[in-house]
Amino acid sequence: MATHTTTPFDPEREIADKIIAALEAGTPPWRKPWTGGRGCPFPRRHTGESYRGINVLMLWLEASEKGYASPFWMTYKQAEALGGQVRRGERSTLVVKYGVVEREDEDGTEERRPYLKAYRVFNAGQIDGLPASFIQEAEPAVNLGTQPDEGLEAYFARLGATIETSEDPRAYYHPARDLIHMPPLVTFHTTQGYYETLGHEAVHWTGGSARLDRISRCKDRAAYAFEELVAEIGQCLLFATLGLTPSIDQSAAYVAGWLEALARDKKAIFRAASEAQKAVDLITGRCGATVAHESEVAA
User: Fold this and answer.
1) In the sheet that 72-74 helps form, which strands lie side by side, from edge to edge?
2) Number of other CB atoms surrounding residue 226 within 10 Å
3) Percent of the chain at pLDDT above 70?
């Protein structure tokens, strides 16, 4: 008689897979310095308390993917207690709770053991009948009047990449079309945010098959995570080469997240930095190592 085995439920692996999968859709939603697009509000419990740690990333990803504008998440029973009803067919999102339980051994010794509890929540946008305070509309794109930097415009123009701009509120490199897509500059909160994002995508562009051919090696999720690491380090190196100050605080948090995903490969950061330097060398070889004229990126 054939025996059937089931894979044990591993919430940590499910979370890691979810985070790495976000790379396949372009820049992760927690690094979005422009307005408009699908919702990605900081996630909160139905009580208003903010989520922490890995749950923030998980719920951010889900909100971005599904277009939820409300920051509020709750269990099925919590929704019912508020007079709400989860709509038929809606799927829940995994969150986890870490804690420590204290136990006393037979010899009287107290022992503290960590535990992980997984449970499922729904966004307020999946629930009918909630009080109006839980419902929010998606963020529209806003013309903030952000101005271009003429020196950096001329610099990236020399790259030779096709840079497409549309109302689509996403920034990404499209390997099949071999182009960089950017949201409108005026929808970015800062001029620097626009050019840092463009620099990030320009590093991806260097990995196209006609150039350094890194992208073709992205056959699995770990490879996508590595490519994102290359792009972020490359963007920082490029700005430093140009004598500009990259937003290290934001980049450090971003890079740290992908290093955690690549934790099994202790040498990943060194290989990524090497690939990033090759990308920057290609960019500066085409565009130069300085901006054409005295330029200060407005904050």
Assistant:
1) 44-45, 72-74, 110-123, 93-104
2) 24
3) 72
How do residues 147-189 score in pLDDT, each as one tens digit?
999 999 999 999 999 999 998 888 889 999 999 999 999 999 8
Structure tokens at 4: 């059937």
pLDDT at 298: 44
What whole-number distance in Å separates Cα of residue 299 and Cα of residue 291? 17
User: Which residue is it, tokens 């997984």?
Assistant: 118
Which contacts (CB < 8 Å, 24+ apart) does range 75-82 have? 75/119, 75/120, 75/121, 75/122, 76/120, 76/122, 78/46, 79/46, 79/122, 79/127, 79/130, 82/46, 82/130, 82/131, 82/134
Domain boundaries, the chain: 38-134, 150-287
Ranges of residues in the chain whose predicted pLDDT is under 50: 4, 23-27, 30, 294-299
* Token digits of residue 208: 């196209």
Q: How far apart are CA 181 and CA 199, in angstroms?
A: 12
Count the Cβ atoms, other than its own, within 10 Å of residue 180.
23
